[in-house]
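Q: Predict the assembly, please.
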Amino acid sequence: MKNTIKNIAALFLIFIFSGSLANAQGWSVPSSAKKKQNPYEATAKNISSGKKIYNLNCKSCHGDPTMANMLPLAPVAPTDLGSQNFLVQSSDGEIYYKVNKGQGAMPTFEKTLSDEDKWMVITFLRSFDKNKKERQQVAEIKNPEVTDVKLELKVNEAEKNMSAKLSGVTKTGKRVGLQGIEMSFLVKRSFGFLDVSGEDPYTNEKGDVQIQFPKDLPGDREGQVNMLVKVTDDAFYGKLEEARVVTLGVPTDPVNPLDERAMWGTRANAPIWIIVTFVGGVVGIWSVIFLVLFQMIKLPKLASKQD
Amino acid sequence: MNDLPKQKETTLSFEKIKKDILHPMQNHKGLELWIVFLIAVISVCGWAYYIQLKDGLGVTGMRDYVSWGLYIANFVFFVAVSLVGMLISSILGLLRIDWITPISRIAEIIAVAFVAVAGLVIVLDMGRPDRVLNVMIHGRFQSPILWDVTVITTYLTVSALLLILPMIPDLAICKKELTKASPIMKKLYNILSLGYINTPEQHKHLHKMIRTLMVLIVPIGLAIHTVTSWLFAATLRNGWDTTIFGPYFVAGAFVAGAAALIIAMYFFRVNYKLQDYITDLQFDKMGKLLVAVCLVYLYFNLNEFLVPGYKMKTGDDVHLKELFYGHWAIMFWSSQLLGNIIPIILLVYKKFRKPLPIMIISLFVLAGAWFKRYVIVIPTLLHPHLPIQNVPENFVHYYPTAIEVSVTVLSFALVLLIITVLSKIFPVVPIVETAESKGIEVKIDA
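A: Predicted assembly structure:
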C-alpha cells in the first residue's frame, strides 16, 4: 500500500517536472518578431545605461553576464545571457520578444520596462558578443592592476561644478589615473539619493571626471547639500566612496508644514476662525449659564420683597 | 384627543396631587432593595474595571485595528439617549405642548443620568484615566475630541439646571411636606428651593430663567450629537466618511431617547402608582412622536445606505457587503427591522400605543438603537485603509472580553442608579405644574 502511494507520488512528480521542462524548452518566437532590429547604437553611454537596467531587473536571476552565476532555479536554471552560445542563437528581436512576453519563471517586462530600456539591455548584452565587429571597446578598457585606490574630490563652488579623481598605485609604485570607470554623484534627499552624475560620468585617461552641479537644486539655509561620490560598480575596486558637505545648492529656508495655521497644526497654530468659533461659542454659552446661576440668587430676595 | 377615554380628574385637588406624588418617594419598599441590587452590580463590575486599570487595556478585546470597541459604541448610545431631555422639555416645552407636563421631569432625569455616565464611559475607555485633564490642558481647537468634551460638559450642566430650576416650587413643597426625610435631605430641599413661596415676582423671574435655558439647550443638544458624529465623520474611513452623519446621529438620538422615555414612564407609572398623572394620553402621544422620529431616522438610513450601496465605491463596497449580507448582516438587519421599521408599522395602530405594548416595542427600539451604534463603530474599524503587514490574528476580529462587558454593565447600572436615586429624592412628576395645568390653585407656605 505504502509503495503504491510512493509510486503514484513519484509518477506525479515526474509528470510535473517533465511538463514544466517541456514548457521551458518549447519557447518558440514568431519569425516576424525575430527580425526586429535594435534601433539604438552600441555607444558607451547606451551600454552603460543598459548595464544599470540589467543590474536592477535581470541580475537577481540571470547573474552577471559571462560569469554563469545565475540563480540555480529548478527545473530550468536561467540562461547566462552573456554566454556566446546564447548570443549566437538569439537575434536582438528574439531577446526583445522574450523580455516582453516572459515564460514560466521569467516574468513579462512588457509594461514594467520602456522600449528604450529594453533595447539598452539588449545593447549591453550584445557588447559581450565576440562576433559583433562594431562592438565598443569602452566597456572593457583594461586598467593596470593597482593597489591603494584613492578617490579625491575637488569642488569649485563658484562655477558650481565638482570633479573626482580615481587613482591607484601600480606594481612599479607609480600612482596612475584609472580610466573608464563610472562614477556616481549623489545628493542626499529626505529619502534616498538624487543622482546628479549627468550624461557621461566616466573617468578619462587621467582618472578624472567632472560634473556640473544643477543650478536650481535647493540646499539648506546656507545652500549646503550632502554629497556622496562613489564608484558605481563595487566589482572593480570594492566599495569606494566619499561623503562631503558642499555649498552648491540654492540657499532655501525649509518649509515646515506645522509652521502655518492649519487644521493639522499644533494648538498654537490653529486656524483663527476655528479658535474664534470655539472660544466664542464656549464663552457665549457659558456666560448665559452663569447669568442664569447669578439670577438664581435673586429668588430668595424676591420672596422677602413680598413681605 | 377626542378619541381618548376621559380621565377621572374631577376628584383631584392640590392636596391629593401632593400626596400621590410625594407618597411613593418615601414609602416604596422595593426601591431600597433595587438600589442595593444596583450597588451590588456596580461593585462586582467595578472589580472588572479595577483589573483593567491594573493590567491596562490589553485585557479588553481592542487591538490596533479596533481601537474603539464596545465602550465607544456604548458612549454614542448614552449620548443619544440623553438627547430626549432637549426634545421633550425644551422643544415641545417651548411649543407649549401641554401633555408633556407630567413627563418632562422624567425626560430631564434621563438626560442628566445618561449624559453624566456618557462622559464617564470615555474615562472608562482610557488606559490612563489620570491623564483625562490633558484633553483640556493640551487639547487642540481643531480636534473634534476637544469639542466633544466641551459640549458634553456644557450639556450636562444645562440639563442639570433644567432639572433643578423647574423643580424649585416642588422642592419648596418637599421642604414642608416630607417631614420624615433625613436631616441631610431637608437641608438639600431647603437650599435648592431658594426660599421659593410662589409669589408672582418669583414665578415670573423663575420662568424667565427656565425659558432662557430652554432656548439655550437647543443648540447645545444639537451640537452634542453632531460633534459626536464628527468624531467619526471627520475621518476618511468607509462608513464614517459621510456628509449626513450629523443630522443622522441627531435623528437616531431622538429615536433612542423617545424609546427610553417611554420605558421609564411605564415603570414610574406602575411602581409609583401614577396612573392619574402619566396617563394613556401621554403614551399615545409619545407613540406618535416615536413614529415621527423613527420615520425621520428611516429616511436618513435610506440615504445613508442606499446611495453608497447604489455606487459601491471601492472600500465602501467591502464595508457595505459586510453589513448587508456578510458578518454583520444579522445585527444590521435586526437593528433596522426590529428597532425601526416594525415599530413604525405597529405604532401606527392605536392599540399598540397602550402603555404595556408600547413599552415592549420601545425596549426593541432601544436595543436596536444600541446595536445600531455597535454596527456603526466596529465594522468600519476592521477595514483600515492602510492594512498592516503580518497582522496578528486577533487584530482582524473583535470580540468584547468579559471585562469589557462587565464595565459596560457597570455603566448601565450606574445610569439606573442615578435615575433611581434622583426619583427617590425628587418628585418625578412636577407637582406645581400639574396643578397649574389643571387649573387648581397652588399654595406654598413660607
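The first strand of chain A starts at residue 147 and ends at 156. Chain A touches chain B through 29 residues (CB under 8 Å).
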